[in-house]
Input
Amino acid sequence: MQAVANPIAERISSISESSTMKVAADATRLRAEGVDVVDFGAGEPDFPTPDNIKRAAIVALEQNFTKYTPAGGTAELKKAVCERHAQDFGTHYQPAECLITVGGKHAVFNLMQALVNPGDEVVIPVPYWVTYKDVVNYAGGKCVFVDTDEAAGFTVTASMIEPHLTARTRMVIVNSPSNPSGAVMDRGEFEKILHLTSRRGIYLMTDECYCKFLYDSEPYSIASVPGAKETVVVAGSLSKTYAMTGWRIGFALAPAPIIGAMGKLQSHSTSNPTSIAQKAAVEALRGPQESVTAMLAEYRKRRDFVVGRLRAIPGVQCAEPRGAFYAYPNVGVALGKNGINDTLAFSDRVLQEAHVAVVPGEAFGTDRHVRISYATSMKELERGLDRLHQFIVKYS
Ligand SMILES: Cc1ncc(COP(=O)(O)O)c(C=O)c1O
Output
């Protein structure tokens, strides 16, 4: 038998395995061996999906809503997405400007495929959500990374972005609140960035995955600015807002021709997101919203606890997360000695020795931080932070 010469297509070599998924897999493996692992790696709510949403899925099943739907999602769900967005943010999207996707990640992927040509530059503030880099690379684009200031809480400003805009810039990506830092963009800066991009005919992609989890400001969408809809593309997700990570429902809001292009791609790849999950999503968006408020209140308590405990570790700094459910402490004090030369080694050793799963900052573009998800119970946070404290004291 003749072995296949180049067994894997070249374009796959432009991407790497998601490090957040890898941490989850390593932690699961250790747990399966009977080790008591505290998991701060998972970027998903520890709350169950609210009952009203689950019931809507059960009703959908009972009513045999189990067939193909339109590839880009049901008209009912598109309408519900547009109405929720209008109610929350004062936008005016029509169903023709909406696509339902298999999670927010799928919306981001399809947006890149539809908008980025080989050689196009895409501006990405650091630290960034892991997936942006890989999906831009996969589309043949070139990532242009923009440093932010840890002392200013990693927040992104127009003056940071502007020097990186060139004739080749196709898109700027913003993610507020940010995964991994929890940074929230100032409205004025957001609008200044829109001004920079719209004036030059550059897309501004806003990833609104954590838009409801804000600790000291009101939910805001840059798409609500008059005229923004022409160049702003929104990637949205129900995963975190409604504790629906496994249901895989996200959406894009963008000018109709872009939605058409993404829909074409979707019609040849995933086809429709799961029919039952779409019915559940309609209930999530149209039903009572109290569960979101309740989750936010709980995350706030945990945020305060986690930041306090991290800052109490000698030598560790932690910027205050103003949204989402992640802390992004600087653990540089424990690097460069004892064989712990980078945050990959740090995360590995914390997992192996202290049995705490954290995500190395390298995954998000910085080299002295780790990401801690506080979407886990106070009891787990206490246990894990005790262990982390001891580990850092021992190795710093
Ligand atoms: C910033 C950001 N955007 C989008 C997503 C996509 O979430 P999902 O595909 O589960 O809807 C995530 C998930 O972790 C995220 O952190």
Observations:
- Residues 43, 103-105, 129, 175, 179, 207, 209, 237, 239, 245, 250 surround pyridoxal-5'-phosphate (CB under 6 Å).
- The CA atoms of residues 20 and 151 lie 25 Å apart.
- The mean pLDDT is 96.
- The two ends are 55 Å apart (CA to CA).
